[in-house]
Amino acid sequence: MSNDPNDMMLELFRSEVESHSDMLTSSLLALEQEASAGTLERMMRAAHSIKGAARIVQVAPAVDVAHVMEDCFVAAQKGTLVITPDDVDVLLKGVDLLGQISAASRDPGTDWSRFQADVQGLVVELKGVLSGNRSAPSAATPPAPPVEATPAVAVTPPPSVPVVAVTPVPAPAPAPAPAPAPVLPASAVAAVTSPASAMHREPVRLVAATRFLDAISAEPLRQELLGQVARGTSILELDLQQVEDLDAVGLTFLASARAYAARQGTELHFRGISPPVATVLRLTGVTAVGGETTR
Questions:
Q1: Which of 8, 78, 172, 232 has the fewest CB atoms within 10 Å of its CB?
Q2: Per residue in 94-113, pLDDT tens?
Q3: pLDDT, tens digit, for every residue of 247-277?
Q4: Can you give 3-38 as a three-state secondary structure string?
Q5: CATH second-level architecture of 204-284?
Q6: Considering only the top CATH level, what class is 5-131?
Q7: How confident is the model at residue 9 (pLDDT cuts 50, 70, 90)?
Q8: Residue 243 pLDDT exceeds 60
């Protein structure tokens, strides 16, 4: 695996797709015989994990597909949706499209807009499964009949119009320039801005209140991190004392959080790292910079 944080995060995203794709395929095929609660739960968690990993690395097409697939599995768990064989075919198309998106992420120059039409079409089909409106794709609209060209009509030019001289009106005198706005002295500006600057320099601590860091538990931390960075917080401390283990999505979140904060000019430090988590972070190079503390 590359030591570049972006390459590492994308590799973890691909591993999430690849590790869950086989299970999703076999479980969907099994649904045609029996829709057990355990099977639906596994598929829902798989789609949720893929969505979380894709969101962290900002692969929007995968987020959109995995999100609506997860909604289908949740609805099936609640009993508001009975997945039919035709629905299975649509969901399998989602698994296949996620695989294509994952493979495309290996090319750093991938233009994600190339997936827009396929993703939008599939999302419409899956939302139809959710709503019960399982309609077949509409037939192509027949081309419009050719429009006959209108024959040209000769136009007689109008007679020339005599030119009338117009005496120019003198321009009004310019209005006096407004008085310059008063300028605050440097001391007054400093007095206004310094409290905010001092506030942003105070470390803000985020607490990971979970024993296992995965897609579900990482999402509220991600939202809080984005909010703090948007508010201009200069120093963030992520308290990991309660975290005993993490999966690929949790690791992807920690790596992407560090990279994103750095790009925005925010220092992010991990605090209270457990020995097992510290080992994973060290092996993957996530804690390659200083400022981390273990317990």
A1: 172
A2: 999 999 999 999 888 889 89
A3: 878 887 887 787 778 888 888 889 889 888 8
A4: CCHHHHHHHHHHHHHHHHHHHHHHHHHHHCCCCCHH
A5: 2-Layer Sandwich (3.30)
A6: mainly alpha
A7: confident
A8: yes
Beta carbons of 257 and 237 less than 8 angstroms apart? no
Contacts 24+ apart (CB under 8 A), 51-54: 51/215, 52/214, 52/215, 52/216, 52/218, 52/219, 52/249, 52/253, 53/12, 53/13, 53/16, 53/17, 53/215, 53/248, 53/249, 53/252, 54/13, 54/101
Check: CB of residue 268 under 8 Å from CB of residue 236. yes
| Average pLDDT for 6-13 | 74
Phi-psi region of 242 (alpha: psi -120 to 50; beta: other; left: phi over 0): alpha
- For the chain, where do the domains classified as CATH 1.20.120.160 start and end? 5-131
Per-chain mean pLDDT for the chain: 76
Ranking 21-35, 261-275, 278-292 by mean pLDDT, the lowest is 278-292
Integer Cα distance of 6 and 108 in angstroms: 10
Q: How many CA atoms lie within 13 A of 271 on its CB side?
A: 15
Judged on CB neighbours under 10 Å (0-12, 13-18, 19+), 254 is buried
Q: Is pLDDT of 289 > 50?
A: no
Closest CA to 100 of 80, 122, 81, 78: 122
Q: Which residue, among 231, 230, 281, 294, has the nearest Cα to 251 in the 3D structure? A: 281
Q: Give the tokens for residue 274.
A: 């457990």
Judged on CB neighbours under 10 Å (0-12, 13-18, 19+), 251 is: buried
The residues of the chain that CATH labels 3.30.750.24 are 204-284
Report how far Cα 210 is from the mean position of its chain's Cα atoms. Answer: 23
List the structure tokens of 70. Answer: 């997860």
